[in-house]
Amino acid sequence: MTEARTVLVTGGNRGIGLATARLFADLGHRVAVTARDPKSVDDRIMSVSCDQTDSDAVDAAFEDIESNLGAVQVLVANAGITRDQLLLRMSDEEFSAVIDTNLTGSYRMARRATRAMLRARWGRLIFVSSVVGLLGSAGQVNYAASKAGLVGLARSMARELGSRNITSNIVSPGPVETEMFASLTDDQQTTIIEQVPLGRVARPDEIAETIAFLASDSAAYITGAVIPIDGGLGMGH
User: Fold this and answer.
1) How many of the other CB atoms lie within 10 Å of CB of 86?
2) Which stretch of DSSP H or E encloses residue 181?
């Protein structure tokens, strides 16, 4: 970007979200992160408590950010949860909780962010999906459905908001060096890595770099795109 902007990264206290927030701060932007239980991760980054399954909590978080940093100009919708379970054992609550946080929560965040973006006639919406959204993953019908849903959500917003100079794009990471990946067994990690043509998992900063590009003036003519950052894992999808 050519000027400092206000950036909000949801789920920004670890992993991809934290790497993204720190990169935007490195680039000189005003950065806030939200999390259910935020902790101070960087003196340059404002941490805000927010449960994005609650519209009132979303409004309160935005009001806090707006009063301290100004209107949100770049939204990175990254927050998400998993409740992995085989289909026949998955409860309604396990399915709905993941959809409500990952998909509906991202919708709530984007709906609130676009108020100021529409007035300013400028904005960047960036949604963090996953390779499993299109590839599928056994034991993750809830998570895969939520991540696939982000594609339809973002592309509809791209069509609806494009005339106001607001872009809406999706990044689709493959396996990444995060706490979630580290929690897998060695055998599970090996199985996943063997499927990746590049033969390794991504670093969080590699995802952050693509997100920062999509937020920049250099990406002004990109909207409705799904950008895979998966080492080739999802080729053909």
Assistant:
1) 10
2) helix 179-182
Report the candidate in 23, 11, 4, 14 with the shortest Cα–Cα distance to residue 177. Answer: 14
Contact 140/132 with Cβ under 8 angstroms? yes
Active-site residue, from 24, 95, 127, 143: 143
pTM over 0.90: yes
Task: Return d(Cα 184, Cα 131) in angstroms, integer.
Answer: 17
Q: What is the CA radius of gyration of the chain?
A: 17
> Which pLDDT value is given to residue 70?
97
How do residues 51-110 score in pLDDT, each as one tens digit?
999 999 999 999 999 999 999 999 999 999 999 999 999 999 999 999 999 999 999 999
41 phi-psi bin (left φ>0, alpha ψ -120 to 50, beta other): alpha
Q: How many CB atoms lie within 10 A of CB 213?
A: 15
Q: Which two tokens stand for residue 85?
A: 């379970």
Q: Give the pairing type, strands 30-35 and 45-49.
A: parallel
Task: Label residue 237 by pLDDT band (50, 70, 90).
Answer: confident
**In this structure, are residues 129 and 226 in contact, taking their beta carbons and an 8 Å threshold?**
yes
The answer to whether residue 1 scores a pLDDT higher than 70 is: no
In degrees, rounded to 5, the angle at the alpha carbon of residue 64 between the alpha carbons of residues 60 and 66 is 115
Q: Sign of the C-alpha dihedral, residues 55, 25, 30, 149?
A: negative
Identify whether 107 is a catalytic site residue. no
Contact 196, 175 (CB under 8 A): yes
Judge contact between 233 and 197, C-beta under 8 A.
yes
